[in-house]
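retry 2 of 3: previous attempt timed out while embedding zinc ion. Reduced batch size to 1 and resubmitted. Inputs unchanged:
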Amino acid sequence: MRYSQFYAPTLKEAPGDADVPSQELLIRAGFIRKIAAGVYTYLPLGRKVLLKIERIVREEMDNIGANEILMPIVQPAELWKQSGRWDDYGPEMMKLKDRHGRDFTLGPTHEELVTFLVQNELNSYRQLPITLYQMANKYRDEIRPRFGVLRAREFIMKDGYSFHDSWESLDETYQAHRRAYSRIMERVGLEYAMVEASSGTIGGNESHEFVAFADTGESNILFCDCGYAGSDERVPYKGEIKYDDDEMKGIERVYTPNVKTAQDVADFLNVSIRKIVKTLIYKGRNGYFMALVPGDRELNEEKLKAFLDDQSLVFATPEEIFENFGVPIGFLGPVGTKGIRIIADHMIKGMRNFIVGGMEKDYHFVNVNVDRDFRVDEWADLVVTTKGDPCPVCGKPLNMKRGIELGHIFKLGTKYSQAMGTKYMDKDGQLKPFIMGCYGWGVSRTMGAVVEQLYDEKGIIWPLSIAPFTTIITPVSNNESLMNFAEKLYEFLNGKGEEVLLDDRNISPGMKFNDADLIGIPFRITVGKALNEGKVEIKWRTGQQYKIEADVEKIYAFLQDSKSKYNPHNKA
Ligand SMILES: [Zn+2]
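retry 2 succeeded.
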């Protein structure tokens, strides 16, 4: 490709709303353009990288005997009603009506469609196991689309589904995916971990996440020396409940003007935040309920959803809270409330004389005690487990790293086949629901994750496997002899099947170098002054510099050797 014909507009300035390095760099370097919040166009550079990621994922899927299909994005509501997820999926689902008023969704995932597909096609145990997958756009109406392609509303995902007549057979396919996903991570050049995970809206039993390390990631991975690793959405809190043996004091209502957070209350009353109990209101399938957690802990929504088996749960808005309970959000509390279900974290069992909101603006209750002052309907593990908490396996303090979830595999079991009546005939002529697995991989997100791990102050540093070009040839001027050699080298390398960009633009060498670094092409061949001594300069994006003979065969051989040694994680 000649740069003069290539559509790759780079920007000097970062876009104002870019909030992570990958978003800033992918926009500045001309890989993506934002159309709306969480909706992007992929420019030629971005499209090239995506195609390479897709090819790696496809090869690994084909290697384990999975079959590629392509399902529609527009999905009829009926199928989602059969599985129960039309109402259950929550506000992330984009819904629309056709001209006849019939309901559809822009598919956030495809379990319903694939189950419907096989309903009349897979009839016998003799046809099993079968794995189907696709790579297609998905839609999720994220409440806060951000971080560029890392949390977009429209994105490309590989989703696969397997059908089995036994749990043993499902386990074989599940393990094959574990291996395939590890290979994908390695091939795209990412440092990663595989962790035990929550199954989110999918349901089912065993589940693992593949998480690429990145400081800007939204997943927290908890580790232990004993080998345990889990997503913080999933890790149970196994600390002992500390029973406070203070005498119960008399409950009092105190004036606490203008406090907003638990920390404000603690500061205002001059007590430790451990004396506070936070009250949160959630809205689920069956209306509102209260969740209570200690003041110094965060509530884990995934645990709450799992405990209530209600994926539609959302945090009530301040307006909803005010309308239903008549108090601003910072003054909620369980004392004196009637007709609302109260779920509390186990740790509160051990607390004495604590502080809760007064259910009236600018007031709190102090010296509150469970049972005496309010009832708890259910106790549960509701808190986010974090760094320093005990490992659920061995009890040692956990370590934490941040990461970006790219792959997620689940053993679904019969959840969808049961709900949708999708059955096969077993050996004894009995009709049984399929045992299913499902396997997701974020294709467009992978592009963002790689940039989060591989960049410097000059720009992106692509691994060879997914770089848009392996090599850029940079003649430093339009001088005829320089251009002649650059052209000859370009034709030669192209003929050898190398992916080369020839920077034939009529701009300064400095600008050419800056763009090459920003785009992140692994090898830059500079055709400049050194040509007078019969040499060209080759610079790796990781910083290593070489001067070699200006001979097309020798340059080609040098590039082959460089490819075997290039590691984007190892800078010179
Ligand atoms: Zn451990």
